[in-house]
Write a structure and sequence with these properties.
Elements: H1 3-17, H2 20-37, H3 48-71, H4 75-89, H5 98-111, H6 120-130, H7 137-148
Helix pairs in contact: 1-2, 2-4, 3-4, 5-7, 6-7
């Protein structure tokens, strides 16, 4: 079952269960998928990798909003964002630990013969494609920098 099929099924179940948080969150994800699908000059079909990137983007947006709401002492909006993050994270694969991330990136750096920060772009291109959905891009970037320095 693809991720889109799982989202559609869960959306239907959320409607039946009257789960407003899950329903609102999955509708937002479906909207993001539809927007991605309708982009001009689209050459690829929407697959699980693209859906994972979209969900990851949605999580980041909600984390940013949650931080703003927390700082503004808007607890009910903060709670709403956190609840939506929990729904979105249920569709993400298990995240790599710091040790696993470092080991994986070290292997990639060795395989592509990267030796300095000049090679960061080459390494990041490979790493981000390989670790889609299982590591945050900020964590990836920081780990690559620490290895190449």
């Amino acid at each position: 079952m693809t991720l889109i099929e799982k989202i559609n099924k869960d959306l239907s179940l959320a409607m039946k269960a009257k789960d407003s948080v899950k329903l609102r969150t999955l509708r937002a994800v479906k909207s993001m998928i539809s927007l991605e699908d309708s982009k001009k000059n689209k050459t690829t079909e929407i697959n699980d990798e693209i859906v994972l990137k979209l969900i990851s983007k949605a999580i980041k947006q909600r984390n940013d909003s949650a931080t703003i709401y927390k700082n503004a002492d808007r607890t009910e909006l903060y709670s709403q964002e956190i609840a939506e993050i929990e729904v979105l994270e249920s569709y993400m694969p298990k995240q790599l630990t710091d040790d696993e991330l470092t080991k994986t990136i070290e292997e990639i750096v060795t395989n592509c013969n990267a030796t300095s920060m000049k090679d960061m772009g080459k390494v990041m291109k490979i790493v981000t494609k390989e670790l889609v959905g299982i590591a945050d891009s900020k964590r990836i970037s920081n780990t690559v920098k620490s290895i190449l320095c």
